[in-house]
């Protein structure tokens, strides 16, 4: 084949990285992005004149794939790792939660329970065979091993916050992955260290977009792909502007979005489509604001009060320093909710009023009148539900039933939590996969079976 043409659906990190690698290899690449900007869930905006993310983002020291890309793009001097600080808000009190000593001082549970909570985390750190945890839900495992009270006060609110109505469905292997990620990335000297870019995460997307422009990649914003089909060995991509043909297409969109794009292939493989649609997602609702007021000493706050209206509150300026934002404090309030939840449609002004009022109950000195800039974002399909049997039933092959169309979205990351590091890994790998596929003879391609996606840590 002379110059292969590749269509990429989705201009998030996975799509942009795949486009960059494929363009480097000489392919003619077009990226279709339905939004008005690239970056997907990691996209940024400007708050009080400062570039930040719509949804709070940081990196771990162990995020090898994205760190390698950062180095390759010449951005290493823009990334700094800062000591993190975590707290838990429970029953009207904010408790630091960074060290074993903090846990011992966490009085909402008995001393025996505090010790049990610590031992459970130590045990999880030593587990190597995570698959043995994939047949039990996190809630059941925690109740059995950490005890009822520890689970009720510490763990269940976190599971409810991240997974809403699915809180009792999530597999323990996912929680094990979260614990592993945090423990592995601890710095012996400063404890947990989290990475953030001077200029925000957009320094990565800006650098990628510059490389894509230099390589002639056509990035079409505000261009939603409505359907895909194979015609005579090429993939036909339909958008509002008409149809275009490509040798291969990579779809990085959520599974439910992809399922709606290829209805013509449902008869070929009904089981594939059943599985694709069975992956549940939650949306995220995030409020960001800037104020001269410093209302907390911590970066991260888990809000563990039962029925709290949001699950997380964090101060980006406490992580990286308010001087990066002209002395302003940057705060995020966030919650994961089902698509039909009122947060996803209510008037942003009402949401702000409600969340500011709640924040005031936690930090009475907080004065919404001093907020100089704020914004509300609704992010669709922000988190998939990693339930029991996920690996066997929902980890779908990259090859879809539509010949020439590959799918790679964050629901294929398992058992680790999705994140920009794995988006870079997957973007790299999908480019290699497409190039290898293009190098095959038609007979080899016809004989090839879809390779399963492998769970890995
Ligand atoms: C609240 C929150 C906090 C997070 N915190 C962190 C963090 O601290 N660290 C970290 O590393 N990661 C974090 N993440 C996760 C990280 O943002 C994602 O894992 C990563 O950005 C996923 O990239 P992606 O390209 O795979 O998917 P996406 O970013 O979802 O990109 C998919 C793209 O496809 C586009 N699209 C959808 N439908 C169509 C269509 N029909 N046609 C064309 N385009 C379409 C979408 O607009 C989107 O741009 C966080 C996510 C959220 C929601």
Q: Could you write a compact summary of the structure shown?
A:
The chain has helices at 13-24, 64-72, 100-104, 111-126, 138-145, 148-163, 172-184, 202-214, 255-261, 270-278, 316-320, 348-362, 390-393, 420-438, 442-447, and strands at 5-9, 28-32, 44-47, 50-53, 59-60, 79-83, 86-90, 93-96, 186-187, 191-197, 218-220, 225-231, 234-239, 242-246, 248-251, 281-291, 300-303, 312-315, 329-337, 373-384, 405-407. By secondary structure, the protein is α+β, with helices and mostly antiparallel strands.
Give the topology.
Layout: E1 5-9, H1 13-24, E2 28-32, E3 44-47, E4 50-53, E5 59-60, H2 64-72, E6 79-83, E7 86-90, E8 93-96, H3 100-104, H4 111-126, H5 138-145, H6 148-163, H7 172-184, E9 186-187, E10 191-197, H8 202-214, E11 218-220, E12 225-231, E13 234-239, E14 242-246, E15 248-251, H9 255-261, H10 270-278, E16 281-291, E17 300-303, E18 312-315, H11 316-320, E19 329-337, H12 348-362, E20 373-384, H13 390-393, E21 405-407, H14 420-438, H15 442-447
Parallel strand pairs: 1-2, 1-15, 2-11, 7-17, 15-21
Antiparallel strand pairs: 3-4, 5-10, 6-10, 7-8, 9-10, 12-13, 13-14, 16-19, 16-20, 17-18, 18-19
The structure holds flavin-adenine dinucleotide.
